[in-house]
Amino acid sequence: MILIFDALVTNWAALLAIVVISYGAHHLLTARRKHYPPGPAASLLIGNLMQMHGDHTEILFKEWAAKFGDIVYIRILNRPMVILSDLQATRDLLEKRSSIYSDRPRFVLFSELMGWHSASTHVRYGPRFRKHRRFIQQIFNQRAAMAFHPLQERETLVLLENLIQDPDAFTKHFKRFAASTIFSITYGHSITSLDDTFLKLVEDATALTVASGSPAATIVDFFPALRHIPTWAPFAGFKRQAIETRKAVDKMMNVPFDMVKKEMRAGSQVRPCFTSTLLEMHCEPNKGGGGSGSEDEQDIKGAAGTLYAAAEDTTVAVMQTFLLAMTWHPDVFAKAQEEVDTLLGGGAGVAARLPTLEDRGALPYLECVLKEVLRWNPPVPLGMPHRVMEDDVYRGYHIPMGTTVVANIFAILHSCDQPDVFRPERHEAVSPLPDPREVVFGFGRRICPGRHFAESSVWCMMANIVATLIVSRTAEDSETSGVPELKVTPGFVRHPKPFACTIRPRSPAFAALIQEAKLHQEI
């Protein structure tokens, strides 16, 4: 048995070596001399693979941009990649030439092994992508998203109450807010507890997905043939991981979707939601859709599942960054609080009411705080990769068909004076800097369709935290002078590393105002 196992290992290792050499040789034999953008020198077979070191690729790409220019060309094995670190170049390609830059790279692990082919963020550009986009735009366009303001304000009151009762669990409270708002819209279900079954499903699926690696960055993405190897074989760890992840993702998407269908078929009182509305519009009326194989039904399920996957983790990351910034910069928090007090008539006593989304235009400094939070620590620093669908030439550089194109959002937003310093004032008056709100949600036809909803959710939480709470360093941290360095977790989404802070109501009167507003919402 040992000899047989050794032979299998040797054969699989030899097979992998042959695949690597074949891909490298194919690239060398078929590549014509083109004027590609500049970039770091690549090795013969593996390209720039060994140079992709460290946990924060966005920082490495920013360093390459400083050395080679804002348009950098690299090769990962046989796959070309262009990294854009300039806003103008990014808009020229991903927006002005969106007809050929709106495809996605081949996410073998995600789309084929995990079964996310029906989720709109992973649909290749074409009729099906436009169909999913249309589904989501019906609910989340800027005008339609205003209908969700009462929901966002109601869930914000629950957030404030939870922060007062259990301030140390602020991250969990942000997760509950994100889950409850999106689940209410998508499936008509409110999440009132951290122990909610649906919240647990999402957390399990998210954790396994993050552990699987970033899209277009796993070994099977570069060697698609490896998806056929058996799960027991060497180098098949990615496949075993994908199988477990797929089970969790399928459960996350199927359980709430099937709940809505069951209620519709039973004639139960179903709260109008994204899923029920689309099922009634595109499938059998009042019966929760056609058969499970219906393409429309599968597309609706995929679009619904995508809504949560795209919103939860990024919303939490932004709110963690906001809370950290307010903890480290009490002067900024005090200035924002003074602005809110002036509008609402609060201060030493208590305001007559809490801020609502209708007040947004009257709080310009808070808007600067939101912009700076997004600029200082963009939640998705490299966005989602694009793929060019035909050969292109830009600024005299050849960009071959099939190239993965990445916009380094982190580099674009950190191209300013003292980029690591949190300073909302940089966005006051007429600022020459790009508006982070127009950068962090992506570009062109792949821009996040839920951006208006996501942005208003974050603003509503920020405004009410500023209005009612005191956020400060802990007693131990207060003894440390200066502002610490921002440290973030590695991964597709940039979260601040765990930190401690003190959260308490400004006074008993403010705590009472929250309870009064919450009671009024329930009437």
TrEMBL record:
Pathway note:
Secondary metabolite biosynthesis
GO terms (molecular function) for this protein are: heme binding; iron ion binding; monooxygenase activity; oxidoreductase activity, acting on paired donors, with incorporation or reduction of molecular oxygen
List where in the cell it is found.
Answer: Membrane
Cofactor annotation: heme
- Keyword list, A-Z: Glycoprotein, Heme, Iron, Membrane, Metal-binding, Monooxygenase, Oxidoreductase, Transmembrane, Transmembrane helix
The record's section on PROSITE patterns has:
CYTOCHROME_P450
In terms of SUPFAM superfamilies, this protein maps to: Cytochrome P450 (SSF48264)
Q: Report the principal subcellular site.
A: membrane
Question: Which superkingdom?
Answer: Eukaryota
Q: Where are the transmembrane segments?
A: 12-29
A GO term from the CC aspect: membrane
The record's InterPro entries line, in alphabetical order, gives:
Cyt_P450, Cyt_P450_CS, Cyt_P450_E_grp-I, Cyt_P450_sf, Cytochrome_P450_fung
Q: Give residues annotated as binding heme.
A: 448
What Pfam families does the annotation carry? Answer: p450
The membrane topology of this protein is: Single-pass membrane protein
Q: Which family does it belong to?
A: Belongs to the cytochrome P450 family.
**What is the name attached to this protein's record?**
Cytochrome P450
Query: What is the species listed in this Swiss-Prot or TrEMBL entry?
Result: Sphagnurus paluster
